[in-house]
Every structure is written in structure tokens, then in C-alpha cells.
Design brief:
Domain Acylphosphatase-like: 3-96
Shape: globular
CATH topology of the largest domain: Nucleotidyltransferase, domain 5
Oligomer: single chain
Keywords: Ligase, Metal-binding, Transferase, Zinc, Zinc-finger
Largest sheet: 11 strands, mixed
CATH architecture of the largest domain: 2-Layer Sandwich
Strand content: 15-25%
Catalytic activity: C-terminal L-cysteinyl-[HypE protein] + carbamoyl phosphate + ATP + H2O = C-terminal S-carboxamide-L-cysteinyl-[HypE protein] + AMP + phosphate + diphosphate + H(+)
EC number: 6.2.-.-
CATH superfamily of the largest domain: ATPase, nucleotide binding domain
Pfam family, one: Sua5_yciO_yrdC
Helix content: 25-40%
Structural class: alpha/beta
């Protein structure tokens, strides 16, 4: 008798897929078994071909809501082909997993608490009433607790919590929704919470004085709590009170960086923010990202929460613990910011939390479940009703990108791409799938560099990758990721392929929009160019494998290099000096009169800086759009010192928000080494003149942004016409700015071209590794 061996690949582990197979098979009176087999689910049926085909169709229709089938392969085998240890019976069973097969299925991300579990923790008659680690097959932790595959409880950190008799009965009952729910537990057998005081001593609370209730009482009094969650730890404080926010800023040395908040429900969010239908959908989704929303007219949180910005990052509770926190407060929202030393990864180990957050947190609410893969909150923003990922992490990772339909892709090689240096993710690409990691961070910090290496090992384990055929990295020779790439190239005895920063941006844009070639605008802070200068305002052609720089912003001198990013008044001085509109002494007087406080050493620095620019001593060259926006921000006295990434341009966007558009700055163009460039010096001169004329700062800020947008758009349109290419895209961190994105889109579409932007990837550096992986494998293929 022939047996049907069915191999199912996709998101089919940790989503209740095997229990669903079991129920479907029994409803159709099928005999056989199902099990996890490495990275796939194996189903063996003892039945006729027509019945097997019917089973497959029924299974597709009854697939669990969070499962995703990529492929189903059916192989007819003899009884002798079955493993000897497997017994043939006339029933259908779920049997023990095996790790022998290596396919392409993946573990799903951590999922927000489902409605059924939420009802349980709110039901006084339920045995899981107010239990903060409730989970089932449809929700709860996955990626953050798994240690190896196949996805079974024994291979997760839940293995440290043996089932009580009631949970064991649920787990083994095919009719129960917790049948083979690997993260299932209850108060009698699962993880527990403890509250520690400021001296890191356990407070010894019980069921009557539970740790959550006591912790929230402290929050209500203005204390700062470190709360360990699913993928890491948050620092939590009131959003309505100045005192705890100022205290938190001082302790973290984050004087201006905006804090995200968590609010109880959508109704509460709508009291302080504008929420579109698309934003509502994202807030309520199983991914539960932070969504950047515009403040509404009733917004009344502390002015220190998101200083000088018109928007705020908001998320809804995604774990049982988060939901229970809001049972004990009348506060509309709490700050929920990642608990980490600036520049280092979020903390996950209890001893580390108690030690490193001493003096930062007042109290600590910690649990005893181990976190294997730390995972920051994801952040998204809608610009003109189009989704844009700012950070793609919890809720989305490790779901892979399916690249199988790309003609240029080399499916025969396994690739590791390491990203740039800031906002790093890495990518493992194999068998037509690209697994982009969770947010890693800035790898110029040693602890984050270690985190990168730890995470690569974990992802290799989960994807069953033992070695690589290619290592890919940024073209910048001094990045820590470049050094790591060379080390790993030696380890795996494989080529290391550097990829130009903006070329990687463009490749991701092509992937996201299923196009083979395009013209794209790359506008960001910095990317190492092939000529050794700092690019960041580029018009580039790419067919994914290759690229060509066609136009750019005007190259500007960057005195002192990176110090000009921290103190952008130095860039303003350089750009105005380059304009030749002002005499040197006249410019010095203007800088002394209007902007002296923005220089570290005031008038003396200004005098020496102009000499430095004139003599080209320690002066880099940049075409960065970010540096232009920063300079406009300085000119308008919006921001004179950058204390967090993107601060100056973000505050400029907020100043310009709601402008009427009464002022127009006409972009002008010229040639630089035969390359068309936008004259950014003239834009800054025009802005200075408008300031002198007494025009409104808001209107000038808006006009400056639009001049840069339309200038880049015109250069791209000219390139598109010259090459006969209809698709023109926009990428880079500058295109998180809604006004700039809309102005660019409007200009390009009015000229008859198709405007494309990121959909399921980051416009910023968070998706660079994805582009590196695709380009490097395609180059080897070609």
C-alpha cells in the first residue's frame, strides 16, 4: 500500500498548525500522523489519492488564522520508507518531532494577546484570572523564547516550567484551543512576577498584594519602574507629569529624545491623538507596533514627553501583563521606552537589569522566564495613508521576505549580510527567502556589537544554516560590521562582497514594488560613496545588480567631519560660505549675531571655522540631504545641537507642519564635474533672506523642505526621461518626513511618472542588509 508523505513549508510552527491537521484528519476519518520535521511540518496519510487530495483542500481552507502555507509537496512512498520507530495504526496522531529535515519553514513572531485569552484574564471565575503570562496557539511569545527547532515546548524557555495537571490536560486534549500550545501555562505552573525596591531587594508580595497592582501604585505616585516584558525591558513612567519625565531624562542623559507611550485602548488614544482608519488597524493588529500619530487639539501630556514635535509614538497593550497594568490606574498612558544604557541593547537578564538600571529605575517588576532573542518594539508611520516602517522588529521578525520570483536571485547560495553601522539589522538569505533580523542598533557600541554576533548565531540555529557562501557588508572600510564581515569571510572561507549604501536602499525599494529597474532618490544622512565622499542626496539608476549615480545635491564641505552632524551650525556656515553670496567678514558677523550660541566656543570657533573651510583643513565632502535640512533647522533657530538621531530635521518638520505654503523657494541647478546638482547653497541663501524680511518661520521651514523635495524630484524626472524609465522611487530616512514625501510624489506623478515607495521594508537603514544580501548573491549569479 502506498502512503502519502506531505511536506508543508511556511509559517506552520507555533501557530496551532499540527492541532488543525489533527482535527481535519479525524473529521475525514484519515489514519496517519503529523509532526514537526526540522523546519517543516510532515503529514503522513494512509489513504487513497483522491481522499488525500480532498484532505489537502480542506486543510488549506481551515488553516489557522496566523499560519501561512508557502508550499505543499506530496510524495507517495512505500511502508518500507517509513522510519522503523513509527507505528502504523488506524488512527491519526500527533507524534514526537524530529530535527532531521531542513526546509524553509519559520517560527512566527511574538503575537499580541488574543481576545479569548484577554477574556480569561478579565474573568474572575476563570483560573487564569489576572495571570500575566496567559497564552494559547493564537497568541503569546514565539521568537523571543525559542532556543532551537522544531518548535516544541522542550526547545523553548517554557521547558523550565513543567505543566500542572490542568494545563497538561488542556495540552493533550484535541478539542481544547490549547492543544499543543507550547507557551501555555497558568499561575500554578508558569512564570511569576516579583517586585524589587530601589535597593534591589524583593518586596515579598502575595496574591492579596500582587506585584502588578503594587507596581502601578508606585507609577501613579510618579515613580519610574523597569518592567520586564516579552522581548525585553521597558522603563515606565507617567506621561502626564513633568517630574518623573524630567527625572528619567536626567538619569538616561536623554534631554530631548521623544518617548513613546502605551495607552489602555483605542478610545483613550483618540482623546489625545488623531487616528486614521489605517492607523487604527495597525494599532489593533496582532503585531501591535508603535504607531507615530499626530497630536490632536486636546493633547495635554507633559511638554517634556516629546519636546517640540507635532507627533507622538503610541502603542496598545500587547501582552497580558500590559493589559493588567491598566486595571490599576486612571492614567491615559504610560511612557514605555526601551530599558538600555544609551547606545547599548535592551536588557533581558534579571541580574543585569537590577545592576545596570540601578539609579535609573526606582523599582523593578521582573519575571523569571528567560528571553532568548531580545526584540525591541516595532515602529511605523503612515505618510499620506502609506505605511512606512521606521523599525521592523517585534511582531514581524523573523517572518522572511519571499524573493523566489526575482529573476536575478541566486537561490543556490546562502548569504549573510551585516547592514551598515547605525540602526543595524542583519539578513540571512537562503533558498529564495530573506530572514531579516530584529533591530540590533548602533554597532559602534561594543555591547551592541556583541548582541549582533549573538543574534547571528541564534538566527543561524533557527534557519538551520551551518555555513555561508557569501558575506556582504557596507562599502565603508571602517565600519565595525565591515570588520566583522572580513572575519566571517575568513571563518567560512567565502567571498566578502561590499555593497554601496544607497545601492542597497534602491534594491530594497525594487523588491518591495516588484520592479526590475528604476530611478530612485536616495535622501538620508550619510552613505559611503564609491568616490570616498559622504553621499546622501542622490539620483541613482539600478537594475538591482548594478547601479549608476546620475545626479545629486551640490557637494558641500563638512568641516571636522562627524562633529558637523552634532553641531549643525558648522554645516550652515560652510554652506553659506560656499554660496559666495556673503563676504567672509559679513558671514562671520551674521554667525556671531544670530548663531554664536550654537557653536561650542562661540565667536572664537566661528572665526577659526571659516579659516578651516577656506583652507580645506580637515574638511570632508558631503551631498547629504540630512545636513541640508539640519542647516535649515539652525538658520530658523529650531535646533542648534543634535542630541538624538534625526532631531534637527524632525523638529524642522514639526515647525513646518500646518503651514499654508504661502512662500515659494525656486530650486536652482548647476553642474558639478559634468553631473547635474541641486544648488543647496542658494536654497540656504534664500532662507536667510526670507528671515531678514520677517517672513513667518513656519512658512520658511515649509518652503525650504519643498525646495529640496522638488529639486531632487526634478533631477529624478530628468534622469527618467533620459533613460526612458517610468518608475521613480524614494528611499532613505528623509522620506519619513510626510511633507517631503508628498511633495516629491506630487511632482513626479504630475510629470507622468510612476512614484514608488517602501511598503513592507524600512526607508531608513533598517532594511539595508536585505538589499546587501540580494545584490551580493545576484552579483555572484551574474
Amino acid at each position: 500500500m502506498k502512503f502519502a508523505r506531505i511536506l508543508v513549508e511556511g509559517t506552520v510552527q507555533g501557530v496551532g498548525f499540527r492541532p488543525t491537521v489533527y482535527r481535519v484528519a479525524n473529521s475525514l476519518n484519515m489514519a496517519g500522523y503529523v509532526r514537526n520535521l526540522g523546519n517543516v511540518v510532515e503529514i503522513v496519510l494512509f489513504n487513497k489519492k483522491e481522499n488525500v487530495n480532498n484532505f489537502i483542500e480542506v486543510l488549506k481552507n481551515k488553516c489557522p488564522p496566523i499560519a501561512k502555507i508557502n508550499s505543499i509537496k506530496t510524495i507517495w512512498i512505500d511502508e518500507s520508507d517509513l522510519e522503523k520507530e513509527i507505528e502504523i495504526s488506524d488512527k491519526f496522531n500527533i507524534i514526537e518531532s524530529s530535527s532531521e529535515f531542513s526546509g524553509t519553514s519559520i517560527i512566527p513572531p511574538d503575537l499580541a494577546i488574543c481576545d479569548n485569552c484577554l477574556k480569561e484574564i478579565n474573568d474572575p471565575t476563570n483560573r487564569r484570572y489576572k495571570y500575566p503570562f496567559t497564552a494559547c496557539t493564537d497568541c503569546g511569545p514565539r521568537f523571543t523564547i525559542i532556543e532551537s527547532i522544531p518548535y516544541d515546548r522542550s526547545r523553548t524557555t517554557m521547558d523550565e516550567f513543567p505543566f500542572c495537571s490542568e494545563c497538561d490536560e488542556e495540552y493533550k486534549n484535541p478539542d481544547d484551543r490549547r492543544y499543543h500550545a507550547e507557551a501555555s501555562c497558568c499561575e500554578n505552573c508558569g512564570p511569576s512576577l516579583k517586585l524589587f525596591d530601589k535597593n534591589r531587594k524583593e518586596m515579598g508580595l502575595n496574591k492579596e498584594n500582587n506585584p502588578i497592582e503594587e507596581g502601578v501604585k508606585l507609577l501613579n505616585k510618579g515613580k519610574i519602574l523597569a518592567i520586564k516584558g516579552i522581548g525585553g525591558t521597558h522603563l515606565v513612567a507617567k506621561a502626564t507629569d513633568d517630574k518623573p519625565i524630567k527625572k528619567l531624562r536626567k538619569r538616561l542623559n536623554r534631554c530631548n529624545q521623544p518617548f513613546a507611550v502605551m495607552s489602555k485602548n483605542l478610545k483613550t488614544v483618540e482623546k489625545f491623538a488623531e487616528v486614521s482608519n489605517l492607523e487604527k488597524k495597525s494599532l489593533l493588529s496582532i503585531e501591535r507596533p508603535i504607531v507615530v500619530l499626530k497630536k490632536n487639539k486636546d493633547y495635554n501630556f507633559s511638554r517634556f514627553l516629546v519636546p517640540e514635535l507635532h507627533n507622538i509614538g503610541v502603542m496598545l497593550p500587547y501582552s497580558p501583563l500590559h493589559n493588567l497594568i491598566f486595571d490599576y490606574t486612571e492614567e491615559p498612558a504610560f511612557i514605555m521606552t526601551s530599558a538600555n544604557i544609551p547606545g547599548e541593547p535592551m536588557m533581558i537578564n534579571n541580574n543585569e537589569i537590577l545592576s545596570n538600571l540601578y539609579g535609573i529605575a526606582d523599582y523593578y517588576l521582573l519575571h523569571d522566564r528567560k528571553i532568548v532573542n531580545r526584540c525591541d518594539d516595532s515602529v511605523i508611520r503612515y505618510r499620506n495613508n502609506e505605511l512606512s516602517f521606521i523599525r521592523r522588529s517585534r511582531g514581524y521578525v523573523p517572518n522572511p521576505y519571499n524573493l523566489e520570483n526575482l529573476n536575478c536571485l541566486n537561490r543556490e547560495v546562502d548569504v549573510l549580510a551585516l547592514g551598515p553601522e547605525l540602526d543595524v539589522t542583519f539578513t540571512i538569505q537562503k533558498q529564495g527567502l530573506s530572514y531579516v533580523s530584529q533591530h540590533i542598533g548602533n554597532t559602534n557600541k561594543f555591547r551592541t556589537y556583541e548582541f549582533l554576533q549573538e543574534s547571528i548565531k541564534n538566527m543561524m540555529n533557527l534557519t538551520k544554516t551551518e555555513e555561508f557562501d557569501i558575506i556582504s557588508c557596507d562599502m565603508h572600510p571602517q565600519f565595525f560590521t565591515t570588520r566583522l564581515a572580513n572575519e566571517m569571510g575568513e571563518k567560512f572561507n567565502c567571498p566578502v562582497i561590499p555593497v554601496q549604501h544607497h545601492h542597497a536602499h534602491g534594491a530594497v525599494l525594487a523588491i518591495d514594488n516588484s520592479v526590475d529597474e528604476l530611478i530612485f532618490i536616495a535622501a538620508d544622512g550619510v552613505g559611503y560613496g564609491e568616490d570616498g565622499t559622504a553621499w546622501g542626496g542622490e539620483i541613482i539608476y539600478t537594475d538591482i545588480v548594478n547601479y549608476k549615480r546620475l545626479a545629486s545635491l551640490e557637494p558641500q564641505k563638512m568641516p571636522g567631519g562627524d562633529i558637523s552632524t552634532k553641531y549643525p551650525a558648522r554645516m550652515l556656515a560652510s554652506i553659506l560660505f560656499n554660496s559666495e553670496y556673503y563676504e567672509e567678514k559679513e558671514l562671520e558677523n551674521i554667525l556671531n549675531l544670530k548663531y554664536a550660541n550654537y557653536f561650542q566656543h562661540n565667536e572664537i570657533e566661528i572665526k577659526n571655522l571659516l579659516k578651516q573651510i577656506k583652507s580645506n583643513l580637515n574638511v570632508g565632502i558631503t551631498t547629504s540631504t540630512g545636513r541640508i535640512l539640519d542647516s535649515i533647522s539652525v538658520a530658523l533657530n529650531v535646533c542648534g545641537k543634535r542630541t538624538y538621531e534625526g532631531e534637527c530635521s524632525m523638529k524642522l518638520e514639526s515647525l513646518a507642519f500646518g503651514a499654508n505654503g504661502d512662500i515659494i523657494i525656486e530650486p536652482k541647478f548647476k553642474k558639478y564635474n559634468k553631473r547635474p546638482v541641486l544648488d543647496t547653497s542658494q536654497i540656504l541663501v534664500d532662507i536667510m533672506n526670507l528671515i531678514d524680511q520677517g517672513e513667518k518661520r513656519k512658512e520658511i521651514a515649509y518652503a525650504g523642505q519643498i525646495a529640496v523635495s522638488e529639486g531632487l524630484a526634478k533631477l529624478a524626472v530628468d534622469a527618467g526621461r533620459n533613460l526612458g524609465i517610468d518608475n521613480i522611487g524614494a528611499t532613505g530616512g528623509v522620506f519619513y518626513n510626510e511633507a517631503i514625501t508628498l511633495a516629491t510624489k506630487k511632482y513626479i506623478e504630475n510629470e507622468g511618472f510612476n512614484f514608488i515607495q517602501h511598503k513592507n521594508s524600512c526607508a531608513g537603514d533598517g532594511s539595508i542588509s536585505l538589499g546587501q544580501a540580494l545584490i551580493s548573491s545576484s552579483k555572484l549569479n551574474n
